[in-house]
Structure prediction request, 566 residues.
Amino acid sequence: MRIGLVSPYPWDVPGGVVAHIADLAEALIGRGHHVQAISPVDDDDAVLPPYVTRAGRSLPIPYNGSVSRLLIGPVSQQRLRRWLHDGRFDVLHVHSPETFSLSLLAMGNARGPIVATFHASQARSRILAILQNPLQVYLERLSGRIAVSPAARKTIVEHLGGDAVVVPNGVNVSRFSDARPFAGWPGDGGTLGFVGRVDEPRKGLRVLLDAVPILRREFPGLRVLVAGPGEIGNLPQGVTALGRVSDEDKARALASIDAFVAPNTGGESFGIVLLEAMAAGAPIVASELEPFARVLDDGALGVLTAVGDPTALAAGCAELLRSRERREQLAVAGRRAVNRYDWSVVAGEILRVYETAIAASTGKVEEDPEPVDEVVLEEQISSLQP
Amino acid sequence: MLARIVGIAAVLAVVALYCYYTAKRLDRLHRRMDSAAAALDAHLVKRAVAAAALARHGGLSPALARALAGAVEAAEAVTGLNHDREVVENALSRILANIAEHEPQLFLSPSPVAVDVHDDALRATIARRFYNDTVRDALVVRDRRAVRWLGLAGRAAHPAYFEMDDEELPAPKISVASRA
Prediction:
């Protein structure tokens, strides 16, 4: 099958959606499919995989306290249309179509079987509701929609109308299961791990750091390994921050701990870090968020604790630090359960969606001779109606 | 006088443009809906064929096998995506769910017959969601007052959702190691 993937975010800026697209592309290529991707790329010198085409630079747009990098423009449109023309794709797969980005541009400029994956979290749902009308002209060009979790599907159903097929995020199990721990880790005093942006409040590092003093009363030798980018202030005793890490070092960090802690306070629609920890064989203590509870099978695959509560988090961690047996049991259960999310399985499910989308459309993907800007004109005229 | 004529002409031009683009948009939506309907129909037929193979497979209790064969026959007798089809496809879904509940080992074993039923049922579910999305998208435009008054939807039949119970069957066991 010839598959075209569209990334809304710059390929050379690390992020969950781009990582997802890269893993998907490689899993599909591994199955013998022809895959091309188009993406904004910020750095002219960035080294890209051979299947990635540059659509141009992205525009930084300040939004919600952080900077979103999006891209739209005539140069991108030209490159995109050429890419569509040359690709002769059987199916086009755009990601995060709710962002004003290359994905939306692709939806407006292509016709044929188009599939979109919504990675949206609850936090975006308010924006989705506002954008529903202008988005509709683009969304109605999709053959099918994928949501990465039941929570993401619910967001679509409630705020955009229509439905979506749930296909979970994938994880490269072997990348994590084969990782070696760092020398001298995890040690005997008890070691906890955290992965994620350290200065993003919703990732909840603060909650974990507040739990550390409580835990040190029972585990004086406790250490915490923190992996993730961002500004971090003074660290309590025993906390080691690695900063931004490569995928390989993230896997090694997960192999270097007694328990993985996900103290997130919200904003997660899936919880890919939990899968990575499970693949690495790290038992998990996580906030009782709906997506986490789902991945952890309501606590069968990890300890769930009250959201934003350092005391409850400390109690959950202590439960695991005390009992090697319980840790082993969770690690074994986690390694078994995570196979369901391996990219070899998830890519098969996505292919099934592609095949259904192709069956539900006529012809191949091609540049639309009537791109959406004309339709937007119609939309503007219709808004003049009483 | 001239100003009035120009004014009327401008209004007419706007209305004409609106009609033109809306009719085109609806035409596109209807074509998308027609292909999605054809795909849903084909996937439902495939599911029935796979279910018939399961009924013949011999791994079922005679009572369940008879019930399944009966449901397949009923499903194959109805064509089109109408209410009668919903009823018979629903009955088939229920029987399959029943089998999954009473003979779970059948679905948990990776026997080719069970794998086919699971896969074809999933594809039918996906096709149904895709079809219902097209219905919903068409209705968003068709339900506008201006579209109804001006008759822009043409002679295309009023779109109807296809409703049926298609809860996912348990997946045949997969092991990553054995696939690699």
